[in-house]
Amino acid sequence: MLEMKTKLPFELLIDQEKIHKRVSEMAEEITREYSEKTPVFVGVLKGCLIFMADLIRQLNFPLEIEFISAASYRKGTDSADYLVLGGASTTELKDRHVIIVEGIIDSGRTAEAIISHLKLMEPASLELVTLLDKPGSHRNRLDIKQIGFSIGNEFVIGYGLDNTQKFRNLPYIGRVLDEK
Ligand code: IMP
Ligand code: MG
After folding, report:
1. Chunked in runs of 10, what are the mean pLDDT values of the chain (180 residues)?
2. Position in ligand 1 atom list of the atom nearest CA 138
3. Which of 5, 63, 64, 162 is 20 to 30 Å from the Cα of 43, by its Cα?
């Protein structure tokens, strides 16, 4: 296992073998449904990076990729978070079969905002897949087509996911330990 030179205490949560096996299963399911549809995978930056790269390399039918970025900001302590979506889409999504690819869903706000935004482009279908989900944290009911792993309300890093922009290069998923 790769040791990271860090002072952030974390432990292994999901190893590379488990991730690989689950991503392959997800790819099989996507293949069953989309192999004749030339879907557009819209990755949510930056957390989708490794998951999407691994997922699409398990698919052997025509597909396209696109990216969207989402950043959330908190104004003070009381006011609600707001989200800024970015990323110039060069692909026309109208009448296309679109699959949103997320690294992790927590409150679900990011996914909700992206879904509303992409719906305006009138895709033929719009589904959401995520490697990780924290079902206990969702703010509203969210329709997720495929979930790699459901986890508890804990903070995880690695395989594309960050802690203050670091640790995305960790090849497995780690759980950050509470600092005592
Ligand atoms: P949301 O609350 O579902 O909108 O999630 C917002 C974003 O927070 C996600 O897309 C991730 O970028 C980030 N996030 C939430 N939980 C974690 C975590 O455990 N590790 C790393 N990033 C996280
Ligand atoms: Mg982050």
Report:
1. 76 98 98 98 96 98 94 59 71 94 96 93 97 96 97 97 95 89
2. 3
3. 5
CA–CA dist 52, 124 (Å, integer): 21
pLDDT value at residue 85: 77
Name the amino acid, one letter, at 66: E
**Considering only CA atoms, which residue is closest to atom 16 of ligand 1?**
106
pTM of model > 0.85: yes
Q: From atom 12 of ligand 1, which residue's Cα is the shortest distance away?
A: 47
> What architecture (CATH level 2) is domain 10-176?
3-Layer(aba) Sandwich (3.40)
Domain residue spans in the chain? 10-176
Percent of the chain surpassing pLDDT 70: 89
- Tell how many helices (H) and how many strands (E) occur in the chain: 3, 9
Decide the pairing of beta strands 156-157 and 146-150: unpaired
CA 86 from centre of chain: 16
- Please tell me if the CB atom of residue 50 comes closer than 6 angstroms to any atom of ligand 1: no
C-alpha of residue 120 to centroid of ligand 2, in Å = 26
SS3 83: strand
